[in-house]
Amino acid sequence: MRNSSISTARKLCIRLMKALCLLSTAVTCGVALFLIGYVLVKGVPNVTWELLSTKPSYLEGAIGILPDILNTVYIIVATLLIVLPLGVGAAIYLTEYARNKRLAAVIEYAAETLSGIPSIIFGLVGMLLFANTFGSCLLAGALTLVIMNLPTVMRTAQESLKTVPVSLREGAFGLGAGKWRVVRTVVLPGCVDGVVTGCILSAGRILGESAALLFTAGFAHTLNGFFTGLGSPGATLTVALYLYAKEPGPGGAEASFAIAAILMALTLCINFAAALVGRYFKKRSAL
Amino acid sequence: MKKIQKWMGVALAAALSVTALTGCSQQAKTSGTVAADGSTSMEKVIGALGEAFQNENSGVTFTYNPTGSGSGIQAVQEGRCDIGLSSRDLKDEEKASGLTATVLALDGIAVIVHPDNPVSDLDVDAIARLYTGEITNWKDVGGNDASVVLIGREAGSGTRDGFESITGTAEQCQYRQELTSAGDVVTAVSQNPDAIGYASLSNLSDSVKALSVEGAAPSEETVKDGSYPIQRPFVLVTKTDAPLSGAAQAFFDFATSADAAPLIAKAGAVAVH
Amino acid sequence: MRKRQQLGETVIHGIFLLLGLITVGCVLLITVYLVLSGIPAIRRIGLFDFLLGDTWASTAASPSFGILPFILTSVYGTAGAILFGVPVGFLTAVYLAKLAPPRVKAVAEGAVSLLAGVPSVVYGLVGMLVLAPGVRKLFHVPDGSSLLSAIVVLAVMILPSIIKVSVTALEAVPPEYEDASLALGAAPVETYFRVSVPAARSGIAAAVVLGVGRAIGEAMAVMMVSGNVPNMPSLFQSVRFLTTAVASEMAYSSGLQRQALFSIALVLYLFVLLINAALNFFLKRDKEG
After folding, report:
1. Which of 61-80 (B) contact C at CB < 8 A?
2. Residue A3, domain member (yes or no)
3. A101, A127: one domain
4. In the complex, which subunits touch C with 3 or more CB pairs below 8 angstroms?
């Protein structure tokens, strides 16, 4: 009925808009699929157990990325250990304690600004602040990443704190609990989902980061334990990809595509994990 | 319980930063470690030497941070590493500031083109005229009728410094692309049939063709006997008045000994000792 | 007892206040460090010569430090990326938020978030191997590494942020608006473009500004496809951005050159602050409207 009242010009216009939308989506997905396909086709054949489980040897001209994998794990763990208390604490202050609206606005604005700063600037400041004072090492990289990921963790923790019902807090206050006790027993447990999501998002960002680490964490491919690792320079997977693409020797180009494929797979896992966690907590909070 | 967990987390993070901080500051001084920092072009040579040295002296930790010649020289000056690595000779002002250069090896800088390019030999003068923009078409040097695409390295690179000073083209090169690594130069040249670029011998791959210069193809022999003209030194930089730590001195002696020569050769450079 | 508890509460309040102020501290720290390390070179070169000089020859015997080519390249590059990226991203967002069947939407959103997670070095690598040779052949220019290649790479890189923020904004439009329009006889597509989009315009504007921020700050990918020569910008010329100027010379720099690189970082930072202020403005208006 309604369709018959639409003029041909309008119909055409509608068709056109619909087609444009479809086309744009096709372009976006096409580019994404091409990128993924290209990297996987060039990279996956080069992912071997040997590559994953050895360290590089100049004498044998072999490339192994085990040290880079470990460095990536170390730097993610160290960053999260430091950024979690800071970010969650800031979120708690904003949602539970801040009475001064203007101060809260300033903090929010600072977080907003921090999340908009390009990673190359973090790299430079990290170099001035950390790498120049105690040398390029994973810890210097991790501290730089802490500043970078602070807004993400703060934001996700804040979002989940907001979902803790006010009635719960009021109930606890009504029972005579002090503020800190309420925060500890009622509010903190409520933001677990935000913390988990924040961790996953931060890990994803750290995984793909190169510019901020190049000037701060160094490039060595040495195999280290956690604590010595933090104190010595080391390349993460993405930095190693950058290095192998930049200074190729025998097998360098293959190795860089192999790392790219691995990173792509890890990104996929992280996206999946984030979606899964989101769904799990939604379900739980609905119960 | 939750509280304890949280505070443990905080305490752990604090403890961790403290230990790691001390770890960081010690790395350059403790005996038993050798820290080298500098030229990216020397990565393979130094990597091979370091690995062999560690295999022989199990108690020694060798770290190498490929940051670039300039950074390496600076790191020695500031005492952040034991040995700096430079792929150019030290400038006079750097020598005057209390640094000593020891030539470790020689490296040939290969002039590379796309494998489909019919040109296979140029003399230094022709290369200089190509790079200064005096010759802009490949047909003037015996190639196809196509304009030349000049690809080089970024300002400050040791490779660029070496190439420009030997060809006498400093500050006159009309680059189409200034790339930040040998790998990028090789990739860019391999993707463009009209491109010409330069890169260290050890960075070459099958995707590009290295030109011979004045009849000499770049190789270990031609670099060593000097018939291949475009070459530069790989230099170990140390402080003139401060002695090296025991481990660092041992590494220095090893690197400049005759035992190291085959390793250096295998890494694509030419040992001088 | 009561007093002690109160004291404890005050201390804890103080600790949280400190944690809350850390973000502010970080921003101040970054600002102070960049200003302190960026000012000396500007003072030596002269603000006018630095910002408006058109030659950059940092290692020449008589060096000149003019960053106008970098500023213009960054501005043109970002504008170009917006020109390509925003229409595609916006239309994709409308499709995903309103038109797409749930399964298509799930797959497409997966693809988009994967696009967001690709490390920028990979963009650069693929750009070098596929895009630059493609541009060379398509436009019959001697070399494909150019402003155009950089624009294409940037346009793709900002797509995910534009799409995500726009979809969120479009989905937040109250269904009553759309129902009213549909009831008045407008077709669904007309409703989405005439009612939903205007209602979500602040969010979409924020998405565009976010894209601008991403594009102007990207370094690693454009460094590999833009040729990296400090020319005045032109579509098929080799160009250098503010970010790549810093990234490409930092490792080898010394003296005044190094200080000048920090000054470039300071200029870039000011651009970013400006963009953030714009972003904040749109987001705030969104909340109030």
Report:
1. 67-71, 74
2. no
3. yes
4. A, B
Q: Which domain holds residue C13?
A: 2-51
Q: CB under 8 Å to B33, separation ≥6 — which residues?
A: B27, B60, B61, B62, B63, B247
Q: Which of C136, C252, C257 sits opposite B68 (nearest CB)?
A: C252
| B233 DSSP β-pair partners | B106
Residues in B touching A246 (Cβ below 8 Å)? 40, 180-184
Distance of alpha carbon A243 from alpha carbon A239, whole angstroms: 6
Mutate: best of C16, C252, C257, partner B, most B CBs <10 A: C252
Q: Is B26 on the interface with C (CB under 8 A)?
A: no
3-state DSSP of C105-170: HHHHHHHHHHHHHCCHHHHHHHHHHHHHHHHHHHHCCCCCCCHHHHHHHHHHHHHHHHHHHHHHHH
Give the whole-angstrom CA distance, residue C285 versus residue B208.
56
pLDDT per residue as tens, chain C (289 positions): 567 778 888 888 889 999 989 999 999 999 999 999 999 999 999 998 999 988 888 877 788 899 999 999 999 999 999 999 999 999 999 999 989 999 999 889 888 888 888 888 889 889 988 999 999 999 988 888 899 999 999 999 999 999 999 999 999 889 999 999 999 988 888 899 989 999 998 889 889 988 999 999 998 899 889 988 888 998 898 999 999 999 888 877 777 888 899 999 999 999 999 998 888 888 777 666 5
Mean pLDDT, range B147-175, rounded to an integer: 87
**Min Cα–Cα distance to chain B from C80, Å:** 21
Q: What is the mean pLDDT of residues A7-27?
A: 90
Confidence (pTM): 0.86
Only one residue has tokens 């940051």, namely B67
Please report whether residue A8 resides in a domain.
no
A135 CB neighbours in chain B (<8 A) are 24-25, 27-28, 80
Tokens of B10: 């905080």
Contact B66 A253 (CB under 8 A): no
Structure tokens at B91: 């400038």
Mutating which of C121, C143, C244 best tests the B interface, going by the most B Cβ atoms within 10 A? C143
pLDDT of residue B26: 38
Residue of B nearest to C127 (CA): B188
- Shared domain for C14 and C132, answered yes or no, is no
User: Is there a contact between B180 and C228 if contact means CB atoms under 8 Å apart?
Assistant: yes
The predicted-structure confidence for A57-91, as pLDDT tens digits, reads as follows 777 777 888 889 999 999 999 999 999 999 999 99
Question: Angle at CA B253, nearest 5°, toward B252 and B259?
Answer: 115
Q: Domain total for chain C?
A: 2
Q: Sort out which chain B residues have CB atoms less than 8 A from C256's CB and list them.
A: none
**Nearest-Cα residue of chain C relative to residue A111:** C23
Last residue of one domain, picked from the residues C26, C51, C76: C51
Range A221-258 burial, b when 16+ CB lie within 10 A, else e: bbbbebebbbbbbbbbbbbbbbbbbbbbbebbbbbbbb
The model's pLDDT over A98-157, given as tens digits with 9 standing for 90+, comes to 888 889 889 988 998 898 899 999 999 998 888 878 777 899 999 999 999 999 999 889
> Could you give the CA distance from residue A115 to residue B207 in angstroms, rounded to a whole number?
41
Q: Give the model's pLDDT for residue C151.
A: 96
Size of interface B-C (CB pairs under 8 A): 82
A144, A247, A257, best to mutate vs chain B, most B CBs in 10 Å: A247
C133 close to B (CB below 8 A): yes
Contact C91 A106 (CB under 8 A): no
Q: How confident is the model at residue A55 (pLDDT cuts 50, 70, 90)?
A: confident
Residues of chain A with C-beta less than 8 angstroms from the C-beta of C130: 38
Please identify which residue in the block is written with the tokens 């993924």.
A36
| Distance, CA of A252 to CA of A46 (rounded, Å) | 11
- Give B34-105+239-271's CATH code, choosing from 3.40.190.10, 1.25.40.20, 3.30.450.20, 3.40.50.1170: 3.40.190.10
Same domain for A40 and A57, yes or no, is no
Q: For B107-231, CATH number?
A: 3.40.190.10
Residues of C with Cβ-Cβ distance to B74 under 8 angstroms: 254
